[in-house]
Structures are given as C-alpha cells and as structure tokens.
Amino acid sequence: MKKKFCYLIVLIILCISCGTQNISKSEIREHFAKQFFMNKNVCREFKKYIKGNTINIIDPDHYITSESQVFKNADFSINISSKRKDEYDFYIKKAIINENLAFLVLWYKDHTTALCFYPVKSEYTPDLWIIEEITTRSIK
Fold first, then answer.
1. pTM of this prediction?
2. 26-43: per-residue pLDDT in tens?
3. Distance between CA atoms of 75 and 11, rounded to whole angstroms?
C-alpha cells in the first residue's frame, strides 16, 4: 500500500512539473516576434532595404502573428500586418518556430531576394533568442 501511495505522489509531481513548463505555441510566437524584430542584427539587415523610417511586413499565413503589430527601435519602425496589401517591403514566406529553434524566410518586394534567418534560444540565457545566422538568397 505504501508503494502505491509513493508511486501516486511521484506521478502527481511529474504531471505538475511537466504541466507548468508547457508553453502554448501562441505564447512562443509572441515572445519570439518581439525579440526577433527588436534584435540589432535583424534591424541592421533590414536597414539595407529601407528607404524611409518604416518597414512594412505582411504575414497573411499567420506564421508570426494573427493581428497587426508595430515594433519601434531608435532608427525605424516595423509594421507587421496579417492582411495582404499591395504595398509592402517584406513578405513572410515561411516560418518555423519551436521552443528552442526557428527558421524564417522573408521575401523582399522585388521578388528576387530572400532573407533567411536562423534564430536559436540562447543556452546561457534561456529566455533570449539570438540570431545564429542571416543569409541572403536569390529566389530566381
């Protein structure tokens, strides 16, 4: 009887500890989006393509967000819209976001350039996303 009781307690503790660490996908995406679009390396890459003080990104497939968002840094602001528009700077073509690893492809409005981002969760600061690599590809 004592063994069954001990097993039951261990099972309850395991269930509680696993349940508290489970984060929803929308929370991961929301946390990721803020850190990604405010990252200095990402902003430095976007600066190469900006002509004003605003970058418009569309996300019609809701990879990052299902609603419009604005991220502002010292140099410019990034507007993300989930609605298709004729005027945009980047189009989120593909995004895979997991708990510790992500991959994003943004097509530039010229339809010949793609920016590929490889963010990872930092092993030293577990709540921080860092950009491991940024590549530019020709899509034609």
1. 0.76
2. 677 878 998 999 999 999
3. 52
